[in-house]
Amino acid sequence: MTHDDPSPPTHPTVLFDGVCNFCDASVNFVIRNDRRGHFRFAPLQSAAGARLQSEYGFDPSQLDTFVVIERGKAYLRSTAALNIVRRLGGLYPVFYAAIVVPRPVRNFFYDWFAKRRYRWFGQKDECMVPAADVKDRFLTE
């Protein structure tokens, strides 16, 4: 996808906080369990992440969660997480059943955890550098 191409990505794209240690661990977890290589990734702080945030109407300075962009729609917070687990291998798709919990309830717990993630897991000065074997799954533009 080029910058001038308004069409949605062909693969679901996960936008994540690239300086958050928990978020990096979560991306690595998804990579390990996404046996078909379904997802693509972009740190919120990257050029590709900022471009996608802008295209989908998010203020990059205000976004402190991760986003899944799929088929032209952006999913946030707990809904994004659930959309990821339903495509993973193993038993992880069973967690998608939590989609029946009302979104405000799910997001209350998501937000509670998200506010504490830096304190509990720390953060880095720079975004993660993907390993060579998965580098093609990270958007760079």
Key words describing this protein structure:
141 residues; alpha+beta; 4-stranded mixed sheet; 34% helix; 11% strand; disordered N terminus
Please give the count of helices: 5
Count of strand segments: 4
Total individual domains: 1
Structural class: alpha+beta
* H/E element sequence: EHEHEEHHH
Q: Major sheet: size, sense and barrel closure?
A: 4 strands, mixed
**Proportion in helices:** 25-40%
Rounded to the nearest angstrom, the distance between the terminal CA atoms is: 9 Å
Structure report:
- The protein has one domain (13-137).
- The protein has five helices and four strands, in the order E-H-E-H-E-E-H-H-H.
- It has helices at residues 21-33, 47-55, 77-85, 103-114, 117-121, and strands spanning 13-16, 40-43, 67-70, 73-76.
- It has a four-stranded mixed beta sheet with strand order 2-1-3-4, covered by helices on one side.
- It is globular and about 35 Å long.
- The termini are close together.
